[in-house]
Each structure stands twice: as structure tokens, then as C-alpha cells.
Amino acid sequence: MAGQPILVLPEGAQRLLGRDAQRSNIAVAKAIANAIRTTLGPKGMDKMLVDDLGDIVITNDGATILEEMTVEHPAGKMMVEVAKTQDEEVGDGTTTAVVLAGELLKNAEDLLEKKIHPSVIIRGYGMASAKALEFLREKSADVSFDDDKLLKQMAMVAMTGKGAQRAGDHFAGIAVQAVKQVADRSKGSVSIDSDYIKIEKKQGGDLIDTELINGIVIDKERVHSGMPKKVENAKVALLDSALEVKNTETDAEIRITAPDQLQAFLAQEENMLKEMVDDIQKSGANVLFCQKGIDDMAQHFLSKAGILAVRRVKKSDMEKLSRATGATIVTRIQDLSAGDLGDAGLVEERKIAGEDMVFVEKCRDPKAVTILVRGGTEHVVDEAERALTDAIGVISSALEDKKVVVGGGSIEIELALALNNYAKTVGGREQLAISSFASALEIIPRTLAESAGMDSIDTLVELRAKHEKGDKFAGVDVMGGKVSDMEKIHVFEPAKIKKQAITSASEATEMILRIDDIIASSGKGSNTPPEMPPGGGMGGGMPGMM
Length: 546
Hints:
- This protein is an alpha+beta fold.
- The chain folds into two domains: 14-142 and 405-520, GROEL, domain 1 (Orthogonal Bundle); 216-365, GroEL (3-Layer(bba) Sandwich).
- It is built from 16 helices and 21 strands.
- α6 (148-159) crosses α11 and α7 (168-182) packs across α11.
């Protein structure tokens, strides 16, 4: 065996080891961070994304951009996961998290060039991350459930830079009302499930026509034209089984030998459907939402009974209707009783943008609501939806965590200063990693300054000087193009957004730095070896991504 190569991997597999693997991963992660970095802040630029079918998305929402991009490189996918986690946990701050992860890796690359071992960098970054979260908690202010003014200001900050900015005040008010309406409060804690805030989009009208419905809007029409279009003081029944004559569970054969037998069979079917409708009528219901189908004959009987019925309602909408009206979702029609019914002040079919929709509104204390978004074009409506989603996420995070921080890059400068002071108390090479972590946090104010057309170096120098003098709320006033007191111009963000961004970014960075070997196997039956992700410069595009 002496001198013979030992083949462990299949033919066509490729491998990158040590610094080459790290360099490759860091290059791709930096490319993704740079791709969305210019979207950060109120003056951030938009991206136009065109898919295979030619459909266009124009947005500056980090989560949407990364979702639409076809990222193939494994390190790139990790960066996309950072954005997804941030979006799912807090609903905003996705660009911040990805840009911070990219900067942490860039600074780690400089340390690797200085022959500092990845384990030392990882340990230092872990210490810095834990300390940053500790400092963040200390520098956070409290927010109460009833502080509508502060909640509205945070919502407006979250929406600034999105397409819905000109209707920002209107949208912020709607978002605050919606979140507070669906919030569950018990023993001082607040839990909010934003899934119960339904966002229904319809082209036409203006952004300012967007409204909050204290109830649910169903994108369906009543099943029969003879049914009432409008029902006041509605008693709502929710049914998750079909209003049809069921087929037998076992195979059966019915032999009909005479016309009167056929007539009797059809009459029996009709009678069964009539009994089902009678059961609904006896319960006192005058509005029915059915998750499955409604037979034509049953539609006729419901119409005769003056019951407004809607069929094939989505399961998620049925759950929202239950939360909004207080109705119980019933499986067997025979079990339906007055106690299972929900209440709504008004159920009405209306034509919106040429389509019939059923509005269930004026509910007493709905724990599920609908925001009906209007706008001139499809792109405007889509961007308005993204702005509202961010605003809802921000308000929910602030109410659940009960902590807010001053924005505009102010908190990042404070944390950077605190970490630099902490680094001086730590011995060994970890001190360098902590200082690099502190430096990476400054990417946020630096990017905000760049997007506003300000000189990023001068801005950072001025910010550091002000914070060292004790002006802890100094940040980048993007609209004014200068350094200002962020508290005075009401720029606030939930502490939870910063906490999640720091946690996600540092964890992703540590995971990528641990990789010192990339093995890319070729697919079975393929004679073409896979392209290895490049480890060199960025060139004109994003390597291994699209």
C-alpha cells in the first residue's frame, strides 16, 4: 500500500480544506450581506427581483429579498436562515441581522489572517454576544400596554422606507389597534399571535382607504343568489363537515326496478338534506360558514330559510371566525345548538374591486381581526402588506418583551463602547475577538449614514465622541442628514429585535467559523463533478448563489 492513494470519497467529489473552506464560506456570507445592506434604514434602496416566470417583486424588505433569491451555497443558506429566524421571531430587523452576521464574519476573516485560531474567535464572540445582551437589557426602557403613542412611533419607524410610508400614520394606528385587539393578557404577561390578524389585499382605491375590520373578511360569496346579502344581529354557525348526502363507508349496491322506487330514493335524499337545514334553523343560526361543500338542494332549502351561507371556507379562516364571533366549530350538524353559535353585529356581502367578499364585523370583543389593504397597483398593495407585517411584528415584540431601545444606530454605538471597555478587562487573544464584535456593531449606524448620503467615517467619529461624552441617545438622523438625539425625534425600536439580531448573527457566525472542511459530492448517476464554491474575490456577482 506504500505510496498508493487511499480513495475515501466517490469519484467526482470535491473538497476544500482549512483556510480555503473558511475563505469560501466567508466570501459567500459577505456577498449576501452586501446584497441587502443598501436596503437598511428609511432611505434604503429597493431591489427588483424577477423570477423564472417573469413575475416582479420590488421591495426593500430583507426577508422578502432573501426568500426570492435562489441561494444554493450552504453558507449562503445559513445566512437566509438568520433572516427567516429573525422574521418568524420578531417580524422585523431581518436586514440588521444579516448585515451584522456579514460584518462579524468579515472581522473574523481579518483575525484569521493574523493567525488567530477559529476556536479563540468563537470563544471571544460568544463572550461578546452574552455581554452585549446583558448591556442591552440595562440600556432598555420599559413600555406599557396602554402607551399607544410610543407603540405608534415604533410602528412608523418600522414602516419608514417602505412603499406605505406616505400613509404611515394611518397604518401605524391600524397596526396598534389590531395587535391590542387580539392580545391575550393574563397575570401581567401579554401573548400575541399575529396569525389572528388577517391581512386581506385588494387592488383599487388608495392606501389611505386601508381599514381595520373588527371581525373577519372572507374572500368568498354566498352560495345562492336568493339568500340575504345583509344580516344584522347575526347568529353565526361554523360547520366543518359537508352539507351533502354522504356516500356509504362500505361498498353498497342499490337496485331500482321501478320509476316509483327512483322517485322514493330521490325524495329520501331530499328529505335528509331538508332535515340537515332544519337542524341548522332550529339552532337559531341565520348565517352559516361551511368548511366543505353544500349540496345544490341544501342551498335551496337554506335560501328558503333566509340563511346566508358560505361554503369551502379555509380552515384558518374558520378558526379566525371562531375567535372573532365566539362560535364553536361543529362537526356533526345534529350536535349544533344555540350554545355553539357566535355573534356578529353585521354579516354582509360586498363587492370590492369587482369581487364579492363576505364581511363579518361589529363583533363584541373579537380576538381575530382583518386589515383590508387597498392600493393603486399590485406592487403597491404587496409592499403595503409587508410594511403592515413589520409594524405588527414590532408592536407585538414590544408588548411581549415590554422593553424598547432608542434607534438610529444609537444603541449599537452604546453597545460597541461598552464592549470595548469590557474587552480591556479580558486577557488573552479573546480580547481581540471582543473588540472585533464591538466594531461589527458599528456597521448599522455606518450603513444608515451611507444610505442617507452622509459621510460614514465623519458620522461614526461624531457619534463615538458624543457617546463618550455621555450623549447616549445620539444617532443617525436619516431624514435630517445629521447626528441628532434619537429620543427627541421619537425613533424607538423593540429591544427584542436587537436581542434576536445579535443572537442569530453571532450563532450563525460561530457555526460558519467552525467549518474547516467542505466536501461536495456529485449526484448519483452524474458524470459531471459539482462546481466547488469559489474562495476568491467577489468579482461582479455573488458566487455559488444564483
